[in-house]
Write a structure and sequence with these properties.
Largest sheet: 2 strands, parallel
Order of helices and strands: EHHHHHHHHEH
Distance between the termini: 25 Å
Number of helices: 9
Radius of gyration: 17 Å
Number of strands: 2
Helix content: 55-70%
Strand content: under 5%
Length: about 190
């Protein structure tokens, strides 16, 4: 079961900030901030047991868009299909992120994958990385400049007021503190 469907999660309390490390905020690698946002989302959903609706929409769009890019980059669309559970909610976040970033070619690839799932569901459900449709989509994906994606993603996140930057040496304590608070509330209920 994907971590965003945690059955132990309990009622949502809204979180209005995304906590990231200072080294990522000032870092020179474009992938650092999107990766830290994804780590924040994973921590909030897995360790703190927050529900998706409790997190800032920016965090969800960023994290799932980066998830899609990372999954396909590392294992192709077959890996994304399997690991995402092919959930419509995830795909909606990805489409939104790609739209915000102005990356229509990536979004067109995902849309073509969705068309494949609808027009040939039996083949889609049984296909793997060697399926010619997936191979063609992976080839299109890998032909795009990935550095452009990360640069646009970083630039977008830096415009968002929800980022809260903490020194690296305080970051883990703050994140663990959020989990401890959340767990304490859960056991007290």
């Amino acid at each position: 079961m994907p971590y965003y469907q945690n059955p132990k999660a309990y009622p949502a309390e809204l979180i209005d900030k995304i906590i990231i490390r200072e080294s990522c905020h000032v870092g020179t690698e474009a992938w650092e901030i999107p990766m830290d946002v994804g780590n924040f989302v994973a921590h909030m959903l897995q360790s703190c047991l927050y529900e998706i609706i409790a997190l800032p929409p920016v965090a969800m769009v960023s994290a799932w868009t980066n998830y899609y890019i990372g999954q396909v980059q590392n294992g192709g669309h077959d890996q994304f299909i399997g690991n995402s559970g092919w959930e419509p909610e995830i795909r909606n976040y990805v489409h939104e992120g790609l739209r915000i970033l102005g990356l229509g070619k990536y979004s067109a690839i995902l849309a073509d994958l969705e068309i494949f799932a609808v027009t040939d569901p039996r083949r889609f459900e049984n296909c793997d990385w060697s399926d010619p449709t997936l191979e063609a989509l992976d080839t299109r994906f890998h032909a795009l400049p990935i550095d452009k994606y990360y640069q646009k993603h970083r630039e977008w996140l830096l415009t968002e007021s929800v980022l809260q930057v903490y020194p690296d040496d305080e970051y883990h304590a703050i994140m663990n503190g959020l989990a401890d608070i959340r767990r304490g509330k859960r056991t007290a209920s």
